[in-house]
Specification:
The structure holds two protein chains of two kinds. By secondary structure, chain A is mostly beta strands. Chain A has no helices and ten strands. Helix content of chain A is 0%, strand content 52%. Chain B is an all-beta fold. Chain B is globular. Classes of the chains: A mainly beta, B mainly beta.
Chain lengths: 113, 112
């Protein structure tokens, strides 16, 4: 029989543009947040993390912004390249969830040359 | 340093067959996890082990069992495979709650 999967949110950008991927979380007790990148056929890879005592953290071409007031996390990718095409997941950790991360649904980023 | 190693990478089972997915990490991590990922969906936690000697159910444990054999190894067993268990399975590990997971490359399982 047929299987029907959910469709991931998608973001399509032109090569060289900046990309912004958003994530909302619901647990006000969350104190640690991570962004993962998952390329087709591979496992998720760590990109960048941020702790709740910060509101911004920068890496190489990536910046994570945390707004605890509205429980919102974003990942900014500068000068997006075709190799950035992947699914991006946010994840959060809170003391109430013990050692488990809670993952968002993911966003499919497509970079057009 | 291999990180998290999963075997096999691909497997086809007939309905009712059993198999064990193997996972090993060489980073001396305390916690290990098994997730499944279905097309267009996020990661769903099957079972996890917060430390050697302990295991706990996650979001979708039915039809699965796990064994934390030692600190390095955490296996996932399907006793009687069903088509609904067709999925990609990821193992992950973590040192403690101040850090993220390291994932394996996945096992793609098809049950026919």
């Amino acid at each position: 029989g047929e299987s029907v999967g959910l469709h991931l949110p998608t973001l399509s950008v032109q090569e060289g543009d900046n990309s912004i991927i958003n994530c909302a979380y619901s647990n006000s007790a969350s104190d640690y947040f991570i962004w993962y990148k998952q390329e087709s056929g591979k496992g998720p890879q760590f990109i960048i993390d941020i702790r709740s005592n910060m509101d911004k953290r920068q890496g190489q071409r990536v910046t994570v912004l945390l707004n605890k007031t509205v429980k919102h996390l974003s990942l900014q990718i500068a000068a997006t390249q075709p190799g950035d095409s992947a699914v991006y997941f946010c994840a959060e950790n809170s003391k109430t969830s013990g050692s488990r991360l809670t993952f968002g649904e993911g966003t499919q980023l497509t970079v057009n040359p | 340093n291999a990180g998290v190693t999963q075997t096999p990478k691909f497997q086809v089972l007939k309905t009712g067959q059993s198999m064990t997915l193997q996972c090993a990490q060489d980073m001396n991590h305390n916690s290990m996890y098994w997730y499944r990922q279905d097309p267009g969906m996020g990661l769903r936690l099957i079972y996890y082990s917060a430390s050697e000697g302990t295991t706990d159910k996650g979001e979708v444990p039915n039809g699965y069992n796990v064994s934390r054999l030692n600190k390095r190894e955490f296996s996932l067993r399907l006793e009687s495979a069903a088509p609904s268990q067709t999925s990609v399975y990821f193992c992950a590990s973590r040192t403690d709650s101040n850090y993220g997971y390291t994932f394996g490359s996945g096992t793609r399982l098809t049950v026919v």
